[in-house]
Amino acid sequence: MTGGRSVHAIQLDVVAPDDYVRDVLPHSSALWAGARSFDEYAAEFLATANSGWGKRRFRTLGLRVGGELVASCKRYERVLRCGARTYRAAGIGAVFTPDALRGRGYATALLGAILDAERNGGTDLAYLFSDIHPAFYERLGFVSLPSRSIALRADLLNAGRVEVAVLGDRDQPAMRRVFAALDARRAFAFVRTPLDWEWQRLRAASREHSGGTVRLGVRRGRSLAAYVSGRRIPASDAVVVDEFAFARDEDRPLIASLLRAAAGDLRTVRGWLPPAVARDGIPRGAVRPRTDAIAMAIPLSAAFRAALHDRGTPERERADPCWSSDHI
Ligand SMILES: CC(C)(COP(=O)(O)OP(=O)(O)OC[C@H]1O[C@@H](n2cnc3c(N)ncnc32)[C@H](O)[C@@H]1OP(=O)(O)O)[C@@H](O)C(=O)NCCC(=O)NCCS
Known about the structure:
Distance between the termini: 40 Å
Bound molecules: coenzyme A
Radius of gyration: 21 Å
Oligomer: single chain
Number of strands: 15
């Protein structure tokens, strides 16, 4: 107290996983738990936060005013490769202010404090996927990136005669190799380290609540020529594709067969428009701008700003930047 006025200390803090479960999830679960019960949602969050990946690459952050947690978010650490260079990226997700505290500038202050800390810590860029009007994040300097959805009629997919295999955990190394082969052809992409693949495994388990995961591939000898991973959602009569990859150019047509098989008796194939390198793997379909999960980024370092302004790569201009499996 100073001269009778209360002075509230404003502070950006790491929120420990147990505290996040106690202080944030009871407010935010209605929005994000989906079909999971609160206990399931909380247990899944703790398993993720306490995993090897979680301890190294994931934090929950909060803004405290006079000790009270007034806004929070999740921070993901990734590496973005642009050409031969790599950049440190901070992903921001689950930005949240409890209902009663909204409209007082807390989320803006939280994000501002995070961006300052990231700049000072040498992070090259921050990114997020906005479920609200992007104007909120644009005010902080984020820029919207192409973010589209695609929908295809499964029966129009030109499926050749190929032997489709259901893939399991033992196929993970082969899937990683196929993904890496396709990714290497991209001008820019999030790097998938072994830790990032662990995160993918955790996420696949988490997505089970919104549909049965499907992972199909076409084998070539002991290796894999192509794979598709996604979720079958009978209530929407659709299979939702999270990512796919093919090892060589001649394997590209296998994707249509895999999508057809993944759909089975479901009528539609849906998903995010794949990054440019994989777009030709599927027919054109109905492409629409997304109204949620709009990819946004803000450059924080001079090095990354320069890379962004290097217009040498046409892909950067028009293509959607990431797979939905990179959504946070
Ligand atoms: C979005 C959210 C985090 C904003 O928190 P906040 O502390 O109220 O934010 P601030 O006070 O800093 O800024 C308020 C401004 O946010 C903007 N805003 C809030 N909701 C918005 C929305 N759906 N679309 C666009 N802007 C929005 C408005 O401009 C608002 O100003 P106003 O109150 O004068 O209209 C909060 O509304 C929330 O937790 N929503 C539910 C979770 C969510 O959707 N998070 C975003 C995920 S991308």
